[in-house]
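User: Structure tokens for this complex, please. No commentary.
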Amino acid sequence: MLKMSKIGKVYRTGLVETAAIEDLSLEVARGDFVSLMGPSGSGKTTFLNIAGLLDTFDRGRYLLDGVDVAGLNDDQQSRLRNERIGFIFQSFNLIPDLDVYDNVEVPLRYRRLPAAERRDRVEEVLVQMGLTARMRHLPAQLSGGQQQRVAIARALVGRPQLLLADEPTGNLDTIASRQVLDLLDKINAERQTTIVMVTHDPALAARARRKLHVLDGRLIDPNASGGPPATPNAAREHAAS
Amino acid sequence: MTDVLYTLRLVGKSLRRDRWFTAVMLLSQALSVSIFVTALATAQRYSNVTGQARSDVYRIEGDRSLALTNFFRGTQFEGFGEFTANFVSLPTVRAMDATGLPTASTVGFVSVMTGGPVERPPGRLPVRFVGAGHFELFNVDFRYGGPFTGADERAAPPVPVVVLSDALNRQLYGGADSVGRTIRIAGHDFRIAGVMRQRSGKLHLWDFGVSPENTANLMVPFAFADELRPLPAYTWPPTLPELGWRAIAAAPTGMTEYWVRLPSPDARARFATALSAVDPRMRLVSADMIAARFSKAPAPYRVFVILTLVVLEVSVINLMRMLLAKATSRAAEIGIHRALGAPRNAIFFRQMIEGVLVSMVGSVLGLALAFPTITMFDRLIPDSPVPLAITPTVAASTLLVCLLAGLVSGIYPAWRVASVAPTRYLGKI
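Assistant:
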């Protein structure tokens, strides 16, 4: 699903250069659930932005579902992002002027689907998320947990193959956090959606099938002694052993 | 189509979110547009008179006084230098009419007389003496009643009838149907036969070159010149007014315009030959050529339009800054749209729509605001010859200029917002 080889990203401020990511190589198979842990400033978000085609990289090669993203222009990247990637942000990132329905519909708008198909898909995902009663509420009228469920609905409505979650429970209480994680588990199990989740929380990271650490822009795989598991099955076997 | 509607919906939400900011942007645009409209309406009054006369109509013109043309150049009387060449002496008119070649003709000169409605004390009243052919030659349309006729002029004694312009009818009778009412000129009573319909906000072709205070909105049959003994407001070469009407009318001094209708080329050629025999300095000039001279407003009005365009440009820069500030305040939202798959051009297009929409709504408000503005402006000019008007041409020109202004003001903020990486916005959340 996702294959990165020796990815490097440097931020330049005047004469100062800061390497956010150095020689990061990673392969995530379709249907995998990967957690990424690391201290603040370790490069987690930069990795997620690059993986989500929201940011560029300076070195290396990145194949998303077999497509070399380096050769794509902005339009093609936007289309790929829209069709294959879903985002879940820590601060939900809902559009405050749009109600729940309209927020969830946004990715489909850019896919130019017919109105009827958009409606069916939005309603389906809102039913799954238990948000039908809140369809015409604005984000400000919802609790944190509900807002994150809307964000997840928006991420899923386009039926992406890859879900990128940046601290998805960072702004939620314990109960809401558990609900969100249960949802992610369910999505991963039922839809075979690949999930890459960035988190600070070890308990949260433990819910993933594969746990990775980022430190100073470098990737550390705790399971690296036996070689990084390449497929969900291999990862399950690795975890069981 | 649905994409455009969706974009408009998002733009509408964006504008409603910052209501006060949007209101300030609209007001700023509306104020500058209203000033621009006033300048355009003023310039329009003194320009573009094409189509007011029939294409087979000619005027007899003499040599131009270059000294006068240069003297008035750049002033609001810019056309007056040209105007001086238009005066023909009455002996010349009589000689040319005697050829029988024109199918219609008219003279026309202005005299400032005393008079007004009988029910009011008399006042200063500029009057234009014209022949009955005037109304046909200039395609004059009537709001009420009709013109006086050749029969009215030829009757013995001539029928005392006059024709008013829309502007004078509004001034004297509040715009009501005044046909049949009486106007007294130099102690003689005249019945109003008709009220001419004025092309909104535009001078008549025959009024170009006449100073605003002498623009005559009352047409009196030329047959009454002998009885009323007017002193022409303009003569060339100048004559002493003390000579009186009879002396001026008999002198070779130019004192009237002389328009003729010559439909056939043969009649035209023969008329030109006869004219050169009567006065070799005179020649025939077509009404279309004369109208073309007034296709542009005099320099001061053009400068006024340019100055207001500068004001509009400042407003465009201001709008650009405000749109950029507004877009920056919505940076997070733009970042979300980008993350969800919006390409750069979608963001650019949305921002452009916002700029154009603000500019166009501001322009429509500006046009509405221009109505009281031009009324106020008109009151500041006591001798305004024709009330300023926002004609379809002025409105369309304004909207076109504002559409361009909207595009210009929207393009930079749109480019800035669309070209920044989405992570920069998302990072702010």
